[in-house]
Amino acid sequence: MGSIWFFEDSQLFKVLCPHKLKRYKKDHSFDAYKKSDYIYFEEDSANKVYLIEKGKVKIGYYSEDGQEVVKAILTRGELFGEKAILGEDRRSEFAQSVDNSTSICPIGVKTMHELMRDNQTFSLKIYKFIGMRFKRLERRLQLLLFKDTKTRLMEFMNELKDDFGYCCPYSGDTIIQHPYTQRDIANLIGTSRPTLNILMNELKESNRIDFHRKEIRLKNVA
C-alpha cells in the first residue's frame, strides 16, 4: 500500500489525531455517522479537515443537471476536506458516509496549522499528500470525460494494484485485496453495476482476471 494514501502505514495517524495528543485530548471527540449521513455539503463552511477512524466516506459533487459525480471513496486512515488547509472558505464538494458505523476524527484548521508548524516533516508529508491527491483526481476526471468504460475500469484496477496489490510468488499473479464494493467501483468509474458486472465477467472469461467479493487477481498471462 502507498504510505502517502494510508496514514496508518506511515504512522501519521498517531501524529495527526488530536485525541492522541494531551494538548487537545480533553476537548476532542470522534463523530459517528450512519450510512448516507452527510459529513458536510457543498457550500458549507470549510473550517475542519477529517480523518477516517473507521468506515468509508464518499466524496463528490452534483453536476448542473443534478447528476451525482463521485470523485473518491476513502477508507480508514485517510484524510478528507484537506482543501481547508489551503484556505478554502466554502466546500466545493460533499462528503457522505458509506457505512453504517463510520467514525470520523474532526480536526480544526487552526489545530492542523499548529501541528504542521510544529513538525516540518509532518507538514511536508501533508503537502505531498495533497499534491498527489489532486493529481490522481485530475487523472480520474480526465478518464471520465475522454475514455470509454472499459478503459476506465482497467485504469482503476491499475490504481488498485499500486495501492493494494502484491505479487503471488507461486503463480506470478497480482493479488489485489481492496476495501470497495462493486457499487463503489461502479460509482468511481462512472458506470452502473450491471455494466461493471458485464465488463468484469468479460475480463474473467478472457482469463485476464479472477475476482471475488473484495479481491481481484490480475492474471500473469505472459
Automatic annotation (TrEMBL):
Task: Keywords in alphabetical order, please.
Answer: DNA-binding, Transcription, Transcription regulation
- Which ranges carry the Cyclic nucleotide-binding domain? 12-92
Q: InterPro entries attached here?
A: cNMP-bd_dom (IPR000595), cNMP-bd_dom_sf (IPR018490), Env_Response_Regulators (IPR050397), HTH_CRP (IPR012318), RmlC-like_jellyroll (IPR014710), WH-like_DNA-bd_sf (IPR036388), WH_DNA-bd_sf (IPR036390)
- Where is each HTH crp-type domain found? 147-222
Classification via SMART domains? cNMP, HTH_CRP
Where are the membrane-spanning stretches?
A: none
One Pfam family assigned to this protein is: HTH_Crp_2
Superkingdom of the source species: Bacteria
Q: Could you identify this protein by its name?
A: Crp/Fnr family transcriptional regulator
